[in-house]
Amino acid sequence: MSVHPPTIKQLQYLVALRQHGHFGRAADACFVTQSTLSAGLRELETLLGVTLVERTRRVVRFTALGEKIADKAIAVIREAEELTELARADGQPLHGELRMGVIPTIAPFLLPAMLPKLRSEWPNLKLYLREETSHAACEALHRGRLDCVLLALPFGCGDVDSVTLFDDRLLVAFPRGEAPAAKSVEAGAIDENRLLLLEDGHCLKDHALSACNRPEMRAHAAMMGTSLHTLVQMVDNGLGVTFVPAMAISAGILQGTNIEARPLKSDHGYRRIALIWRRSSPREGEFNLLASALRRILREISPDLTATAPAERVSA
User: Taking every annotated instance into account, which residue ranges of this chain make up the domain HTH lysR-type (predicted)?
Assistant: First the structure.
């Protein structure tokens, strides 16, 4: 039996159907009609001589082989995109489209001040932003839906490279009148029964608990919040204490509240803000250039944050 190689377009249809689980939504994502997408997938099955998708009126179910081929298709599409990017980046760095993920405990505090300056420096850069939790951002990065991510380290994100932008100190936020007299807070002095944490999926929680070296805090936390802004309002209403990164305070998250914040006294009382990308990416030079631009912009808008920022390239 002669098996012909599929086209990139056919593989894109297959990956879209796998991602959305619905022919109509997959077609919309590929900017084609449902009949075009369906015909393309049937052509792919004919070319390969196998059934990839079981079709019924109510459900789309991939065969076991279909799942394997869809996984391989993601890698093939990513490699094809990187071929194009390799040629483009050699001509004009930071020109054209760049898809960057940003985690929720960074995005609202850095982007409003950072993006106008970045647009001014690189007017031909079309930056598409996607706010996602650390796990989701890393998955999107490795599946080729993102080119790079602004992430807080340490975090296990697979086979990636990274450049550190700065170290973001962790502080403990107290309701008015509850902050200790000392200039910093010992981890042992935090009452785990009054601790308010971000819900699972936010790496800031893991960074804070790791810095405290008190794993029991996770089990005793009084409440889980969906955002730092929510936790700050709860602290301001006297419901407990929480961890707040310095970048959020620098951006004004405590303005209008009676909260008092004290630095966490710990050898690891910070998270490391970094730009990360797939180690296989041909755009490494561009990402290093972008990291340098971001670090320079951050020094301008928040010199207190980046005063001790390390500049070395590290592996995540």
Answer: 6-63
Q: pLDDT digits over 216-242, tens only?
A: 555 555 567 778 899 999 999 998 899
153, HSE (Cβ side, Cα atoms, 13 Å):
22
Q: CATH second-level architecture of 94-316?
A: 3-Layer(aba) Sandwich (3.40)
Residue-level pLDDT at 257: 93
Of residues 304 and 134, which shows the higher confidence score?
134
Question: Are 149 and 102 spatial neighbours (Cβ–Cβ below 8 Å)?
Answer: yes
Alpha-carbon distance of 287 to 241, in angstroms, equals 37
Q: How far is CA 111 from CA 55, 90, 162, 251, in A?
A: 44, 28, 19, 10
Output helix, strand, coil percentages for the chain, rounded to the nearest 5.
45, 25, 30
- Tell whether the torsion through CA atoms of 177, 182, 186 and 188 is positive or negative: negative
The whole-model pTM stands at 0.69
Is the domain spanning 8-87 CATH 2.160.10.10? The answer is: no
CA atoms of 31 and 27, how far apart (whole Å): 6
Are 173 and 243 in contact by the 8 Å Cβ rule? The answer is: yes
Q: Which run of H or of E encompasses 277?
A: strand 270-278
User: What single-letter amino acid sits at 140?
Assistant: A
Residue type, 167: D
> Could you tell me the two tokens for 283?
């755009």
Equal CATH topology for 8-87 and 94-316: no
Cα separation, 226 vs 56, whole angstroms? 38
